[in-house]
Amino acid sequence: MYYIFDYFMSFEIMTSEKLINDFIKPYNSIHLGQPCKRGCVFCFIRQLGPKVQKPLYCKNFISKENIHEFFEHIDFDKRISFSTDDVFDYPEIEIIIEKIYDELIKRKGKGNIELISTCGSFTRNQIRVLKKIKDKSTVRISLISFDSNFKNKIMKGGWTKEHTQMIKKLIKEKLCDSVAIWFFGSVDALRKEFEIFDSLIQDYKDETIALDLSYPSVTRYANSYTKQLMDEIDKNLDVAVRLFFDRYSNHRTVMPTLSTMIDLFKYLKTGNEKQKFLIDDFNIRIKSAMDYLKQENMKYTDTGFITTASCIRLAKKNFSNLNWIEAKQNYWGGNIVVCDLLTLEDIKDAIINNKKYKYYVISKGIFSESCQKKDVQGIGLADFMKENSFEILSF
User: Fold this and answer.
1) Which of 16-25, 254-263, 377-386 has the lowest mean pLDDT?
2) What is the pLDDT of residues 51-100, one digit of tens each?
3) In the predicted model, what is the mean pLDDT of residues 353-363?
4) CA dihedral 290, 294, 296, 300 (to 10 degrees)
5) Quick one: 240 and 289 in the same domain?
6) 30 has which bridge partners?
7) Domain limits for position 286
8) Which residues are bridge partners to 258 per DSSP?
9) Does 256 lie in the same domain as 283?
10) Ramachandran region, residue 172 (left: φ > 0; alpha: ψ -120 to 50; beta: rest)
11) 98 shares its domain with 243
């Protein structure tokens, strides 16, 4: 039995055909079975707490030796995503990618290969393969920084200037679809990152590249250095976001996006396409919930709508006639505020403090497919409602 799945925070991995069938429906998510060795201080996985610090990795992972056995489980008409910590750190990954590409072409598949690098380290041979598969691939790089010394400071070390040069080569030769630059509190350092990036895309004509402004997420398990970084980030974040969108909002080549949004309402006028999508999606799901309540003769006045700090101001502005409840991210702590990382225990705390409603509406995003439609603690909604006598609807 071979497994194709996302490992992220997965508590119950099914060792059956159902696992494969479930995970290749929307796209093929392929894990390479090796933990990341980078040791970034802000890594979300490293901040998961004692119960979930060690993600589950599949035992029978994909390799150049067994790659052909995986072909029968891959839908070549869908996206084939490599969702390991840093795909390009995996030994001989270029051989695996090239074989999948050759099979994709042979089968005349409609899918493409998505490669995500969390740190962006490349060899010359990997770049050769990326050139070969360019017509059927999407490459996303979390660059972090062009400053090799700073990169070593926030990682375990081992990052060289040659690594940085290879990333620059990748961008300059138009082999990258998306780059994430991280903000760590210094606006001057961020401005320098942008200047280097701009110098690399000077020869872009009709091509475009997505540029994502990211910053660390911090849970209550983060170390003191990471928390210190967050203090600086919080102090200067508004200036950094303004600098970012002033520079790239109307750029002919760059498509700017803001990775993590602590408050969607705050950046309504930035022109961020990713943010617009999130807002539209939020509005559509709330309207769907309202339609369902109306259809079932369930009164809005009897219903509490639960969301997090990232959406609460937007929710109250767009749907002021609804009863909004802000759920605190007690499980993660820190600055984690997105709805998709709420746990049902967080929901329970919010409901206990607002017991006046008959029904409660929550985001369906908290039920991860990699947890078999349970929350990240492995708790299913049906069991949760039965145990607590709550009636909860998810949209």
Assistant:
1) 16-25
2) 554 443 334 456 667 777 777 778 888 888 876 567 777 777 888 889 98
3) 88
4) 70
5) no
6) 82
7) 277-394
8) 213
9) no
10) alpha
11) yes
